[in-house]
Amino acid sequence: MKKSTYLLICFISILTFQSCSTVKVLDSWKSDNVSDLKNRNFLVVARSANDQTRLVFENEIIKQMESNGYRVTSSFAKFGNMNPNEKPSESNKGMIKKMLESEGFDGIVLTVLKDLKEETRLQKEGGYYSGGNYYGYYPRYYGGFYGYYRHPMSMTTLGNYVPETITTSTSKVYVLETTVYDLKAPENKQLIAIVTSKIEDPESASAVAKSYVSKLSASLK
Predict the structure, then answer these.
(1) Interstrand relation of 107-125 and 128-130 (parallel, antiparallel or unpaired)
(2) 3 state SS of 73
Protein backbone atom coordinates (compact mmCIF):
# COMPACT_ATOMS: atom_id res chain seq x y z
CA MET A 1 0.00 0.00 0.00
CA LYS A 2 2.85 2.39 0.81
CA LYS A 3 4.34 1.83 -2.64
CA SER A 4 0.95 2.34 -4.29
CA THR A 5 0.32 5.57 -2.37
CA TYR A 6 3.80 6.85 -3.22
CA LEU A 7 3.26 6.16 -6.92
CA LEU A 8 -0.06 7.97 -6.88
CA ILE A 9 1.44 11.05 -5.19
CA CYS A 10 4.26 11.14 -7.77
CA PHE A 11 1.76 10.76 -10.60
CA ILE A 12 -0.33 13.68 -9.35
CA SER A 13 2.76 15.89 -8.93
CA ILE A 14 3.98 15.22 -12.47
CA LEU A 15 0.54 16.00 -13.90
CA THR A 16 1.00 19.54 -12.60
CA PHE A 17 4.31 20.30 -14.29
CA GLN A 18 4.75 18.34 -17.52
CA SER A 19 3.87 19.85 -20.91
CA CYS A 20 3.56 16.87 -23.23
CA SER A 21 2.56 13.24 -22.97
CA THR A 22 2.16 10.04 -24.95
CA VAL A 23 -0.02 7.03 -24.22
CA LYS A 24 0.85 3.58 -25.54
CA VAL A 25 -0.99 0.30 -24.97
CA LEU A 26 1.51 -2.34 -23.83
CA ASP A 27 -0.81 -5.33 -23.64
CA SER A 28 -4.51 -6.13 -23.76
CA TRP A 29 -6.86 -9.08 -23.48
CA LYS A 30 -10.61 -9.46 -23.67
CA SER A 31 -13.01 -12.34 -23.33
CA ASP A 32 -15.13 -13.47 -26.25
CA ASN A 33 -18.29 -12.23 -24.57
CA VAL A 34 -17.06 -8.73 -23.71
CA SER A 35 -19.61 -7.25 -26.10
CA ASP A 36 -22.51 -9.06 -24.39
CA LEU A 37 -22.45 -6.91 -21.26
CA LYS A 38 -24.75 -4.09 -22.35
CA ASN A 39 -27.28 -5.22 -19.74
CA ARG A 40 -24.77 -4.85 -16.89
CA ASN A 41 -24.75 -1.85 -14.54
CA PHE A 42 -21.09 -0.81 -14.22
CA LEU A 43 -19.41 1.08 -11.41
CA VAL A 44 -16.29 2.90 -12.63
CA VAL A 45 -13.46 3.18 -10.11
CA ALA A 46 -10.17 5.06 -10.60
CA ARG A 47 -7.78 4.38 -7.74
CA SER A 48 -6.26 7.77 -6.94
CA ALA A 49 -5.53 9.62 -3.72
CA ASN A 50 -6.40 12.84 -5.53
CA ASP A 51 -10.14 13.45 -5.91
CA GLN A 52 -9.77 15.62 -9.02
CA THR A 53 -7.64 13.06 -10.85
CA ARG A 54 -10.01 10.29 -9.82
CA LEU A 55 -13.04 12.25 -11.03
CA VAL A 56 -11.45 13.17 -14.37
CA PHE A 57 -10.48 9.58 -15.20
CA GLU A 58 -13.83 8.16 -14.11
CA ASN A 59 -15.79 10.74 -16.11
CA GLU A 60 -13.78 10.10 -19.28
CA ILE A 61 -14.33 6.35 -19.01
CA ILE A 62 -18.04 6.92 -18.36
CA LYS A 63 -18.36 9.22 -21.36
CA GLN A 64 -16.79 6.63 -23.65
CA MET A 65 -18.82 3.71 -22.27
CA GLU A 66 -22.12 5.60 -22.40
CA SER A 67 -21.49 6.45 -26.05
CA ASN A 68 -21.26 2.68 -26.65
CA GLY A 69 -24.55 1.96 -24.89
CA TYR A 70 -23.36 0.86 -21.45
CA ARG A 71 -24.92 1.80 -18.10
CA VAL A 72 -22.19 3.31 -15.95
CA THR A 73 -21.80 5.29 -12.73
CA SER A 74 -18.81 7.09 -11.23
CA SER A 75 -17.69 5.72 -7.86
CA PHE A 76 -16.78 9.27 -6.86
CA ALA A 77 -20.27 10.53 -7.67
CA LYS A 78 -22.00 7.58 -5.98
CA PHE A 79 -19.67 6.97 -3.05
CA GLY A 80 -17.71 10.20 -2.64
CA ASN A 81 -16.36 9.26 0.78
CA MET A 82 -15.14 5.85 -0.39
CA ASN A 83 -11.36 5.46 -0.33
CA PRO A 84 -10.53 3.35 -3.40
CA ASN A 85 -6.89 3.00 -2.27
CA GLU A 86 -7.76 1.37 1.03
CA LYS A 87 -7.05 -2.34 1.00
CA PRO A 88 -10.24 -4.03 2.23
CA SER A 89 -10.04 -6.54 5.04
CA GLU A 90 -11.79 -9.89 4.81
CA SER A 91 -14.74 -8.50 6.78
CA ASN A 92 -14.92 -5.39 4.58
CA LYS A 93 -15.01 -7.49 1.42
CA GLY A 94 -18.42 -8.79 2.42
CA MET A 95 -19.64 -5.27 3.14
CA ILE A 96 -18.44 -4.05 -0.26
CA LYS A 97 -20.19 -6.93 -1.98
CA LYS A 98 -23.47 -6.15 -0.19
CA MET A 99 -23.11 -2.46 -1.00
CA LEU A 100 -22.63 -3.16 -4.72
CA GLU A 101 -25.53 -5.60 -4.78
CA SER A 102 -27.87 -3.22 -2.93
CA GLU A 103 -27.09 -0.46 -5.42
CA GLY A 104 -27.62 -2.80 -8.36
CA PHE A 105 -24.03 -2.84 -9.66
CA ASP A 106 -23.04 -6.07 -11.36
CA GLY A 107 -20.02 -4.85 -13.31
CA ILE A 108 -16.79 -3.05 -12.34
CA VAL A 109 -14.31 -1.03 -14.40
CA LEU A 110 -11.19 -0.50 -12.28
CA THR A 111 -8.17 1.63 -13.21
CA VAL A 112 -5.00 1.49 -11.09
CA LEU A 113 -1.47 2.87 -11.28
CA LYS A 114 0.81 -0.17 -11.39
CA ASP A 115 4.30 1.28 -11.70
CA LEU A 116 6.46 4.38 -12.07
CA LYS A 117 9.87 4.42 -13.67
CA GLU A 118 12.33 6.76 -15.34
CA GLU A 119 13.65 6.23 -18.86
CA THR A 120 16.85 7.93 -20.03
CA ARG A 121 17.51 8.51 -23.72
CA LEU A 122 20.70 9.56 -25.49
CA GLN A 123 20.34 11.53 -28.73
CA LYS A 124 23.49 11.85 -30.82
CA GLU A 125 23.89 14.65 -33.39
CA GLY A 126 26.80 15.80 -35.56
CA GLY A 127 30.07 13.91 -35.97
CA TYR A 128 30.13 14.27 -39.76
CA TYR A 129 31.25 16.59 -42.57
CA SER A 130 28.65 18.85 -44.15
CA GLY A 131 28.80 20.75 -47.42
CA GLY A 132 31.31 18.53 -49.24
CA ASN A 133 30.91 18.32 -53.02
CA TYR A 134 30.63 15.48 -55.58
CA TYR A 135 29.88 12.18 -53.95
CA GLY A 136 30.05 14.05 -50.66
CA TYR A 137 33.83 14.54 -50.79
CA TYR A 138 35.50 15.02 -54.17
CA PRO A 139 35.59 17.98 -56.62
CA ARG A 140 33.71 17.64 -59.91
CA TYR A 141 36.81 17.09 -62.05
CA TYR A 142 37.37 13.75 -60.32
CA GLY A 143 34.46 12.46 -62.38
CA GLY A 144 36.43 12.37 -65.65
CA PHE A 145 39.99 11.39 -66.48
CA TYR A 146 40.83 14.55 -68.43
CA GLY A 147 39.54 16.87 -65.75
CA TYR A 148 41.42 15.07 -63.07
CA TYR A 149 44.60 14.87 -65.22
CA ARG A 150 44.63 18.67 -65.40
CA HIS A 151 44.55 18.98 -61.57
CA PRO A 152 46.94 16.28 -60.30
CA MET A 153 47.98 18.27 -57.22
CA SER A 154 44.54 19.43 -56.13
CA MET A 155 43.26 18.51 -52.69
CA THR A 156 39.84 17.09 -52.01
CA THR A 157 37.40 19.04 -49.84
CA LEU A 158 35.45 17.33 -47.11
CA GLY A 159 33.23 20.29 -46.28
CA ASN A 160 32.73 21.60 -42.75
CA TYR A 161 32.94 19.25 -39.81
CA VAL A 162 29.88 19.28 -37.56
CA PRO A 163 31.00 18.50 -34.00
CA GLU A 164 29.31 15.60 -32.28
CA THR A 165 26.92 16.44 -29.45
CA ILE A 166 25.04 14.06 -27.17
CA THR A 167 21.85 15.17 -25.46
CA THR A 168 20.47 13.26 -22.48
CA SER A 169 16.75 13.39 -21.67
CA THR A 170 14.84 11.71 -18.86
CA SER A 171 11.14 10.84 -19.00
CA LYS A 172 8.71 9.82 -16.29
CA VAL A 173 6.80 6.73 -17.37
CA TYR A 174 3.66 5.56 -15.61
CA VAL A 175 2.10 2.14 -16.14
CA LEU A 176 -1.69 2.07 -15.77
CA GLU A 177 -3.93 -0.96 -15.83
CA THR A 178 -7.68 -1.09 -16.41
CA THR A 179 -9.64 -4.25 -15.66
CA VAL A 180 -13.30 -5.03 -16.38
CA TYR A 181 -15.25 -7.48 -14.22
CA ASP A 182 -18.62 -9.18 -14.62
CA LEU A 183 -19.86 -9.68 -11.06
CA LYS A 184 -22.64 -12.02 -12.17
CA ALA A 185 -20.12 -14.60 -13.34
CA PRO A 186 -18.44 -17.15 -11.03
CA GLU A 187 -15.58 -15.53 -9.12
CA ASN A 188 -12.86 -17.30 -11.10
CA LYS A 189 -14.42 -16.14 -14.38
CA GLN A 190 -15.32 -12.54 -13.57
CA LEU A 191 -12.40 -10.94 -15.42
CA ILE A 192 -13.72 -9.84 -18.81
CA ALA A 193 -10.96 -7.56 -20.10
CA ILE A 194 -7.62 -6.08 -19.11
CA VAL A 195 -5.56 -3.33 -20.74
CA THR A 196 -2.08 -2.26 -19.61
CA SER A 197 -0.75 1.06 -20.90
CA LYS A 198 2.14 3.39 -20.30
CA ILE A 199 1.92 7.16 -20.10
CA GLU A 200 5.06 9.15 -20.77
CA ASP A 201 5.47 12.63 -19.27
CA PRO A 202 1.76 13.28 -18.58
CA GLU A 203 0.58 16.80 -19.39
CA SER A 204 -2.56 17.16 -17.30
CA ALA A 205 -5.16 14.88 -15.79
CA SER A 206 -7.79 15.81 -18.38
CA ALA A 207 -5.49 15.53 -21.41
CA VAL A 208 -4.04 12.20 -20.25
CA ALA A 209 -7.47 10.78 -19.40
CA LYS A 210 -8.89 11.55 -22.85
CA SER A 211 -5.96 9.97 -24.65
CA TYR A 212 -5.83 7.01 -22.26
CA VAL A 213 -9.53 6.22 -22.57
CA SER A 214 -9.35 6.55 -26.35
CA LYS A 215 -6.57 3.93 -26.50
CA LEU A 216 -8.41 1.81 -23.94
CA SER A 217 -11.59 1.82 -26.01
CA ALA A 218 -9.73 0.95 -29.21
CA SER A 219 -8.09 -2.04 -27.51
CA LEU A 220 -11.43 -3.46 -26.40
CA LYS A 221 -13.22 -3.23 -29.75
Answers:
(1) unpaired
(2) strand
Q: What is the dihedral of CA 8, 26, 66, 56, to 10 degrees?
A: 20
48-84 confidence digits (pLDDT tens):
878 888 899 999 999 999 998 889 999 999 987 777 6
With a CB cutoff of 8 Å and minimum separation 6, the contacts of 103 are 43, 78
The DSSP code sequence of 110-143 is EEEEEEEEEEEEEEEE--EEES--STTTS-GGGG
Q: Distance between CA 116 and CA 104 in Å, rounded? A: 35
Q: Which domains does the chain have, with CATH numbers?
A: 2-121+172-219 (3.40.50), 128-162 (no CATH)
Length of the chain in terms of residues written: 221
pLDDT tens-place string over residues 162-193: 788 888 878 788 899 999 999 999 988 899 99
The DSSP secondary-structure symbol of 164 reads -
Q: How far apart are CA 129 and CA 135, in angstroms?
A: 12
End-to-end CA distance of the chain: 33
pTM above threshold 0.70 = no
Residues 6+ apart with CB under 8 A from 185: 192
For residue 200, what are the contacts with CB-CB under 8 A and spacing of at least 6?
21, 22, 23, 24, 119, 171, 172, 173, 174
C-alpha dist (Å) from residue 195 to 22, 46, 110 = 16, 14, 11
